Structure of DUF559 domain-containing protein:
Amino acid sequence: MTTRVTRDQRAFRATGVAALHDGVAHRADLRAAGLSRHDVASEVAAGRWRLAGRHTVVIGTGSPDGEALLWRAVWESGSGAVLDGVAALVAGGLTGFRLEVIDVALPARNRGHAVPGVRLRRRRDLGPRLSVGVPRVRPEVAVVHGAQWARSDRQAALVICLVVQQRLVRPDRLLAHWLTVTRSPRRPFIDGVIRDVCDGVHSLGELDFARLCRARGLPEPSRQAVRVQRDGRVYLDVAWEDIGLAVEIDGGHHGLALNPVDDALRQNEVVLGATRVLRIPVLGLRLDAERFLDQVVRAHQQLCELPA
């Protein structure tokens, strides 16, 4: 004989299940907690719960939000589905990035289902997965995919910078995974940014700033050397010593995300007439090289016009 579950018991059991998933519950988990299909239907009919898909039940009257949307995306997309790209990074703790669509990876042979706000990515091999929290691919895989699927180079760089800055993946692990990727959209750009962020000294050592200067009609700098300060700051020291102009190109991912790029542009505009040192984040040369080089050209012209 089946024991009837009271309304209060339904609420207590369902709330415990939903607490693990930011307010939503999978029908299978509700059954495991002793709630039948009839129990769920009764609560939905009474307006106390809501359905958010074939498997997802909102324990309450609101709409799923935040992490609940990530759980729904995995539950509703198909068997074996896991979060991928930036969605996987957000599930792992990434902040400072607004999620526009939830990328879900699904084994190629499994049946997939369309879910609003979700983009399915068919994959032959999902690779190692994390099962603590919302199921998702490993962060080093997710960040590469997030950069590849980004709307722009700037957004791709933002994803890479945020993940390393927030320590969601170690730089050496990200670089090691990237070296295994044989084909990639926007490969030259992503390669440069990952090396800038993960291996600043080597990246700056390979930067041919003199070539960029020649392309803008400037004479070659008289000095170009990589410096490493005691606090770990790495920069490329470039100078035209005959006119007293120096440019410091910051390596790595110092500061918050892409803020140094915008800050350096504004700061250089302010101090062009009062200083002989310009600072450029190395990511700025990848994202906005022409504007930074415009400033270098202007500074060089101004100093050349000064009386000896």
